[in-house]
Amino acid sequence: MSLNSVLVAAGAASSKTDDPTVVLDVGELLGITDHFVITSGSNARQVRTIAEEVEMRVKAQGGGSPRCIEGLQDARWVLLDYGQFVVHVFLDEARHFYNLERLWSDAPRVEEPWPRAERVEMES
What we know:
This protein is α+β, with helices and mostly antiparallel strands. It has a single domain, classed as 2-Layer Sandwich (Beta Polymerase, domain 2). It is built from five helices and six strands. The chain has a six-stranded mixed β-sheet. It is globular and about 30 Å long. 40% of the residues are buried.
């Protein structure tokens, strides 16, 4: 899996939320994965929608399926583990509480632009 899959995941997440999507290069710091994609939604439905969009778009571009998905039932913190990268989709409050961006602040950020999937408006 390449950096392209990470960027596709970030673009897919960004297409479903107005919250910032962050990509961290944690490979040198963590050793078990290369990148974190971190994003959030304002409610459980949006969190699930973001996770589903990421899964669909990564698979469609040839990146395969996640090795495992955790937290989808509760949808406070959904984790999609692709091995070389991990996507974290938080409920807003959980993102602020766990604050992975601060926890991994030594990790370099991968800056946009990443391929942005066409945005589809969500119903409230």
